[in-house]
Structure formats: structure tokens, C-alpha cells
Amino acid sequence: MASSQTGQNGSGRRAQAKLRILVLALAGLPSILHAQMRQGQSPRTNYLLSCGGCHGLNGVSNSRLVPDLKDRVGFFLNLPEGRSYVVRLPNVAFSLTTDGALTDLLNYVVFTLGGASVPKGTKRYTLSEVSHLRRKPLTEVSLAKMRQQMVRILIDQYHATTDLRHYGEDDYGGAR
Fold first, then answer.
1. 132: which of 4, 7, 102, 160 is 20 to 30 A away, CA to CA?
2. Which domain holds residue 10?
């Protein structure tokens, strides 16, 4: 009798273990499907779905709330830390898209929306670069202060538009 109870307990435990594995697998399914859905879409479509709601359909937004991208985002690629900043922003780094789709999306944002702000000779983001940088998201720094410091340098040394200052409640770095 003891052996039949052990047998039932053993099969019951196996069934519970299988059920737990199934539940865990299903819990991750929406993220996997979401990432796969976006992988086959164009970079512009991914931009519209992932970024356009805040940054605007063409990269122009309410710059008091969200930075404009159109004719501005490329300036950040003048600086090595600016190039990595764009990828390491939490909303970018934690995107549910694959590394490949994110690389295409970033190149669309910088080289299409960024327009004339992109420095001549700037290289496109590579898959390995994006894959590496997004694994080090900027989660332990003040993004506003970091951006502000880069904007000062970009305006002073790279002749970036002073419109880069127009972000947040108060313009920073400008004369008042």
C-alpha cells in the first residue's frame, strides 16, 4: 500500500511540475509574440508603434514633455557618450523588439528623422553595438542632467541648434 501511495504522489508531483512549466511558458508568451510581431515590420512602422505616440508621427512632439527628434537627434552622435545615450535610454534599451529590429529602428530615427543634424560621415548603428549597449541601460543616473551636459557641449562645440535646450518645464542653459 505504501508503494502505491508513493506512486500516486510521484505522478501527482510530476503533473504539478508539468503544469507549473506550462503556466510559466504561457506567462512569457505575450512578450515573445509581441517581439516577433514587430520583428517583421518596417523601421517606420516600429517607430510609429513604439515611439510615435510620444515623439510624434514625424519626430515632432510637445518638447516641454518629450524631446523632439526631427532634425535634432543626430547631434547627439557627435559625442561617443551621446551615441551610446540614445541606445541606453530606458525606453529604448528595454524595448520589447529584437536587437535587429531595434538597430533598424534606431537607424531610422537617427538617419531619417535626424536629417541634417546627423554629423557627416556618421556610421549607422550595428547589430552588435546595439546589442551590447542596450544591456547597460541608463537606470542609475539623472537622464535630465546627463542630457543637459551633452546639450551644452553640443551647442558650444558642435554648433548644434539651441532648440535642443527646449525640453522640460524650464529651458536650460539659455539666457532668461
1. 160
2. 1-39
Query: Within this chain, do residues 73 and 133 fall inside the same structural domain, yes or no?
Result: yes
Burial profile 22-55: b = 16 or more Cβ within 10 angstroms, e = fewer: eeeeeeeeeeeeeeeebeebebbebbeebbbeeb
Query: Total structural domains in the chain?
Result: 2
User: Digits of tens for pLDDT over the chain (176 positions)?
Assistant: 554 555 556 777 777 766 666 555 566 555 554 554 445 799 999 999 999 999 999 999 988 889 999 999 999 999 999 999 999 999 999 999 999 999 999 999 999 999 999 999 999 999 999 999 999 999 999 999 999 999 999 999 999 999 998 886 555 544 43
User: Which sign does the torsion angle of CA 89, 91, 93, 99 carry?
Assistant: negative
